[in-house]
Amino acid sequence: MKAMKKLVKYIKPYLLFAILAPLFMCIEVVMDLLQPTIMQQMIDTGIANQDNEYVIKFGLIMLLCAIIGLIGGMGCIVFSAKAAVNFATDIRRDVFKKTGRFSNQNIDSFGTGKLITITTNDITTVQQAVIMILRIFVRGPLLFIGSVVIVWFTARELFPILLVAIPVLIAFIYFFSVKSGKLFSRVQKAMDKVNTKLQETLAGIRVIKAFDRQSYEKAHFKKVNNLLTNRLMTAEQLVLTLMPIMMFVVNLGIIAGLWLGVIKVNEGTLQVGVILAFLNYLNIMMNGLISSSHVLMQIARSFPSAERIVHTLETKIDITEPVQPCTVDDLKGEVEFRKVNFSYSKNGINVLQNISFKARAGQTVGIIGSTGSGKSTLVKLIPRLYDPDSGEILIDGVNVKDIPLENLRNSIGFVPQKATLFSGTIEENLRYGKELASEGELDQATKTAAASEFIMRLDDKFSHSLLQGATNLSGGQKQRLSMARAFIRKPSILVLDDSTSAIDALSEGLVQQALREDYADSTVFIISSKISSIIDADQIIVMKDGEIEASGKHDELLRKSEVYRKIVATQTGREVEFG
Ligand SMILES: Nc1ncnc2c1ncn2[C@@H]1O[C@H](COP(=O)(O)OP(=O)(O)OP(=O)(O)O)[C@@H](O)[C@H]1O
Ligand SMILES: [Mg+2]
User: Fold this and answer.
1) Residue 498: helix, strand or coil by DSSP?
2) Contact 419, 430 (CB under 8 A)
3) Are strands 465-466 and 335-342 parallel, antiparallel or unpaired?
4) Which of 309, 347, 486, 572 has the greatest count of CB atoms below 10 A from its CB?
5) Mean pLDDT of the chain
6) Ligand 1 atom index nearest CA of 380
């Protein structure tokens, strides 16, 4: 309820449409309500007195009412759609904008499956509720109240029937609306599960095939899909059961109306036309109540959706801009970690512990260590993809938290461990690193990343289109483009997270040489599991279980680091004896 109120601001720009829609609906309702009374006049005065002129006159009035009603109905449809669709579009825009600003921690806590359900299903549910409110919320109660009032004035003898039927109908509607709200909230949760599974399966379809795990995945999907089916079935069945129950109550009312009517006609206190009009109004009343109940259920259904949307829009982003920013025009690239501790889940185990080191501007820092030792996590803290729990990270002596995010991230070229490219041309992907890069810069960056050779072999070269997930490139080609995208920035700080793992030794040598020549001023972090990639680094950091086991140059580490000696030994196939 509260959440729905918070979304009301999105309807404000379209308030005119939101007001016009129910007004047009009022026209339709009034016309609908006039019809049975006109018909009653036709029967009791025109037909009973065999006055043809009277019948034709009232027939024409009925037709006119029908046409005006149609215009009212159409107007309501047009304006309600304009209001609700624009309302939903604006919410979708803001949710997308907000999720774009989410920190990695925020994304981790939501999960992409849930975010997809929110941007698609939840927003559509709320949009549907608004359409229903504008169209039917006026129509239903108006039809209902109108018919009750007209029956009071024109068929008071039959009014007691309504006194029994109405409370029974309202009690059913209340019960079903409350229950359906709860059931649809469970449906949404099941929908999250289906979306998450679907997204995971589609992203990993190649792995699934390679491992021939289709039947396993099918069984897994079936489980979540069945859960959704069952919950949806229960909820929909409940909603649909209401209709026959209401019909049954109204039919009882019709029988009672006929029975009481016939008695009164025989007594001579009631005309036949009045019974007919009463039965008509009973039907209109039921329609009014049923449509109101549908709106109520749609609204109840939209509450959990609205809550999830508002929760997304109001989620606190934990990586925020500095309160007193310290803009550094030209970052030189000196990076210092001071007693940094970090865990992914608050109060969870530390993934990084007491990390302290200093990399001078222009230095190359190699990071090596076993899998899961915290290498990727360490470099993710530099562009503030995550913030440390304690300790600080300084660039050129300024805490990264005090540097405006744009300023900070624009100074860093980041090559993530998993090369992620976007659908579009190679050039578009490279310009992701620097939008206004010149052709010369494109050439140089691709050369440095040893990517130009394969690009030049393509018919359409830089205009070559990549499919979603760059599935039409090899692993090494993806890595090369991912590197070129970072190089093109000529950043003060370059981070290469295991980015040469799929590149042959010869090309890797060329990349390293080009890096030394073209990026001599940049501070370069190279994470690698291969000694050859970091052997020449000015400083090598050896990670073990989230801690720095040792740091120094290659020769120094051979003397003082047990872990490093072991890595060298396994890679060269020789025991290394030092110190
Ligand atoms: N988003 C995340 N949420 C929770 N835990 C995470 C997350 N990312 C990594 N971890 C955990 O943090 C630890 C360090 O991970 P990290 O990716 O830094 O290791 P790594 O040294 O880069 O390993 P590798 O050599 O395999 O790339 C691991 O135990 C991992 O399970
Ligand atoms: Mg890693």
Assistant:
1) coil
2) no
3) unpaired
4) 309
5) 88
6) 18
Query: Does the beta carbon of 374 lie inside 6 Å of ligand 1?
Result: yes
Write the pLDDT tens digit of every residue in 24-83: 999 998 998 888 888 888 888 888 888 888 989 989 999 999 999 999 999 999 999 999
- Residue 431 CA: distances (Å) to CA of 167, 239, 326, 486, 487: 67, 52, 27, 10, 11
Please give the span between the terminal C-alpha atoms of the chain, in angstroms, as a whole number.
71
The pLDDT of residue 578 is above 60:
no
The beta-strand segments (E) located in 430-554 are 465-466, 493-497, 523-527, 539-544, 547-552
Structure token pair of residue 341: 């501790």
Residue with tokens 């409940």: 238
Give the domains, in start order, of the chain with CATH numbers. 2-314 (1.20.1560.10), 333-411+492-579 (3.40.50.300), 418-490 (3.40.50.300)
CA atoms of 291 and 29, how far apart (whole Å): 13
Cβ of 375 below 6 Å from ligand 1: yes
CA–CA separation, 579 and 442 (whole Å): 47
Cβ density class 388-418: b for 16+ within 10 Å, e for less: beebebbbbebebbbbebeebbebbbbbbbe
The Cα–Cα gap between 197 and 191 comes to: 10
- The predicted-structure confidence for 267-307, as pLDDT tens digits, reads as follows 888 888 888 888 888 888 888 888 888 888 788 888 888 99
How many A from CA of 380 to the centre of ligand 2? 10
| Ligand 1 centroid to residue 337 C-alpha, Å | 19
Beta carbon of 372 within 6 Å of any ligand 1 atom: yes
